[in-house]
Request: fold
Amino acid sequence: MSDYTQKIRETAKKLLSEGKVDAVIGYREGTLPLMAEPCLVKDPEKVDQLVFNSFCGVNLANYLPKRKDRVAVVAKGCDSRNIALHIVENQVDRERLFVIGAPCTRMVDRRKVAAAVGGREISGVSEQDGKLTVSGPGYEQTVDKKDVLQDNCSICIHRNPVLADEMLGEKLPEQEADRYADVREVEAMSPEERFAHFKDLFSECIRCYACRNACPLCYCPTCFVDESKPQWVGKSIDPTDTMTFHFLRAFHCAGRCTDCGACERACPVGIKVRQLTRKLEKDCLGLFDWEAGMNPDVRPPLDTWRPEDPEEFIK
Amino acid sequence: MGVEPGRLHFSWISSAESTKFVDVATKVIEEVRALGPAGQLAKTKAQVA
Amino acid sequence: MRFLKIAKDDWTRGVEDLKKSFRVFGPVKEKEAYDFRLLDKGVLPDFSFQNTRLSPKSTVYPQSEILFEYTLDESKADHHVHKVPEKDYSPRVILGIRPCDAKAFELVRLNFDTPEYKDPYWLSAYEATTKVGLACDDPCSTCFCTSAGSGPYDEAGLDVLLADRDDHFLAKVLTEKGEAFVSAAGWNTEAPDAEAGFEKLAAEAEGKVPGGVPTDKLADKETVALHGADFWEDVAFSCINCGTCTYLCPTCWCFDIQDEVKGAEGVRMRNWDSCMFPLFTLHGSGHNPRATKVDRVRQRFMHKLKYFVDRYGRGIQCVGCGRCVSSCPVNIDIRRVARLMNEFEPAPEKCPA
Ligand code: SF4
Ligand code: SF4
Ligand code: SF4
Ligand code: SF4
Reply:
């Protein structure tokens, strides 16, 4: 059992039995290898289902808006930034929230593991010293965890929570990473190539909205794609409508996306939706020196004005 | 996104600059007209089964 | 019913011959996953798949389909007339469909082909379709077809069932459509003594399917008590109400109807819909009878595992393909929920003091 798991259980038990919170939001063991399921624990006797491992890729900040009770939540680096954004955007009340911060050990992409073992059935996984031992009918194979990380985790530069009421461990060293190599490639394309690129990128989208629904930023009571009076976007899988959904959703995340990867992780057909949000992230960084969710007390660039804001994009 | 160059314009016009607004709007209309109808992200009939 | 032997040497020729009289759909690998696609000339179905990521239901029931077109322009002669666009209902074959997915068509049919209503779009496509199954000798760990009234050699809904035997396929021809299929492909090597071997293969494969998803007591449960069971909140907590589970499911059939109009020209189309979306039950008045996530998650499982069972008496509305299990982003697992429901006992009523 990982240290984090042990500490989460202890903290949860303490908070619940002392009546400091009404519930704890964490992860429990999944029914499938390489998965963990978000869960809500109210009973101090039931904290033993809580775990923390390399498969906790779901962003728990997504479960906070509209809650009326006092909750504790387990938060990785990116989750904590989304919590900070929720605070800035008045979606959660800091007073009623207890953040259990997890300096993040980086999350594993289950599809990459499946590919690494050649698509064979996986019936069990164990983790030790940066290696995953994957087993299935008639085989056992060890893979380096760093080769099967979620795309966003492999370029993450903020693994330590930005806010926490209790930390599960010491801060971990941050890495240097080139975050925008693929974005630059798209930028270098001609407009026609770029359009063709995005058309292909979204060609398999089934508009299940798992990407949107997994995202903590997408808490609008009615999403623009679901509006009917007026109806902004068609609902079929017509390519223009599908792309319109993706482009507009990305713009709604401008200056807010923390690159937690929850959207991409959720997509059943493996679409790299973060390409759009990371372009906006790159622009926000370049134009406004802004990274989303780093501080719950600072207003974001799209609702403030500073004398030094550049205006080159405006004629 | 690959929207054709020239189809999207940004401008900063104060509420006091009504003539600038007219000028910019006229110019944008002319330029976009010259480009012809949009070929991308323009839907006439849904392309579905 | 009869057995044929199809030598793999003769496979390519046969498939190409088929394409002369059928539109052939088969599994192909695109980017990272397998899906059913219309096979162009020279393209063979790729049978190295376990199962496809999306179910083959869209070959008969497209995610978005235009029902009819119309014009409101009174200067046109055919204004205000429903015009059904030309559709290709020529014979088609789904080559390599898994038995669970074929059985799913029989369940979906209960909705689209009833004594009162016959859905012309679904039925025309369905009737044009020949389903050639590929038996599963190597089921996935998320499969539970044998618990769901199907199996790796289940013949329900199939016209031909193929078993892959190294250098040949054994074909069990089940229907008239199946006969037309093998004759179009020119496969006619009889294998009269194949039956016993075939049954043995079926039994072996069935043994490999993970079991243990009990559904036997669902019919006896009291609906209201089950609806009020205390586990729903816990089951539903992690759900993000996306459409993944229902869109991937071969047995989910719900759709929404939309008009899309440009100027005076319009189309009426239907799109898959999902009980997991809040919009699914939103009334024009603004009232939503399934207003919370718990309501929606409960609906999905109650429909599949209880209402359907009671309404049709044909088991559950699930064939155990496991797609929703493996693709749910938060790991909500119908096998676990089926167990909870099957084992549910209402709390004994307390005597009023
Ligand atoms: S858009 Fe994707 S990466 Fe960005 S915050 Fe939302 S889920 Fe996370
Ligand atoms: S999760 Fe994937 S398939 Fe679903 S709407 Fe988003 S991009 Fe499309
Ligand atoms: S059960 Fe899973 S796949 Fe289905 S709506 Fe909920 S989160 Fe999405
Ligand atoms: S409910 Fe899940 S397992 Fe059952 S048929 Fe549908 S997708 Fe497959």
